[in-house]
Amino acid sequence: MSKQRPIRVGLVGVGNWATYGHIPALRLLPQYKITAVCSRSMEKAAAIAKEFEIEHAFDRVEDLVSLADVDLIAVLPPAQEHAWIVKAAIAAGKDVYCEWPLTTSTKDSEELLRLAE
After folding, report:
1. What CATH number should be reported for the domain holding residue 70?
2. Rounded CA gap, 86 and 12, in Å?
3. Cis ω on the peptide bond leading into residue 101 (within 30° of 0)?
4. Is the residue at 58 inside a domain?
5. Cβ neighbours of residue 15 under 8 Å, at least 6 residues apart?
6. Cα(57)–Cα(67) distance, rounded to whole angstroms?
7. Domain encompassing residue 33
8. pLDDT value, residue 12
9. Which of 4, 9, 62, 109 is most buried when burial is the number of CB atoms within 10 A of its CB?
10. Please, what's the b/e burial string for 52-61 (b: 16 or more CB within 10 A of its CB; e: otherwise)?
11. pLDDT value at position 77?
């Protein structure tokens, strides 16, 4: 039986949800590998990448979603930011995990569902 390559995860948002929850949890699961992080602050992204030995750090979502080393985008910032980030990830052909709520409006959520189909 061949061993599958881990799912390569890029995290958008590196606040407490990420540093105390998602990053430690994903590091325990061999089927996932965090390959990139993104924050509005490059200093913050670089510090988290260094602390957790993550290869790539970005301060632009567009750069993260275009990275070939990422299969899945985890969207962790405040809810009002979710819609445009999920839209960028879908447009780049990435799978998406989004913290709740998906968006702050039914209209935006319906648009994302249509784009993902």
Report:
1. 3.40.50.720
2. 10
3. yes
4. yes
5. 76, 77
6. 11
7. 7-116
8. 98
9. 9
10. bebebbbeeb
11. 95
In a domain, 34, yes or no: yes
Q: What is the pLDDT of residues 48-97, one digit of tens each?
A: 999 999 999 999 999 999 999 999 999 999 999 999 999 999 999 999 99
Q: In Å, what is the CA distance from 94 to each residue of 1, 42, 47? A: 27, 22, 25
What's the domain count of the chain?
1
| pTM for the whole structure | 0.92
Structure confidence at residue 3 (pLDDT)? 78
CA dist 2 and 100 (Å) reads 35
Q: Name the percent of the chain lying above pLDDT 90.
A: 95
Q: Are 10 and 85 in contact (CB under 8 A)?
A: no
- Is residue 39 domain-resident? yes
Residue 25 — φ and ψ, nearest 5°?
Answer: -65, -45
The C-alpha atoms of residue 24 and residue 38 are separated, in whole angstroms, by 17
- Residue 106, Cα to own-chain centre: how many angstroms? 22
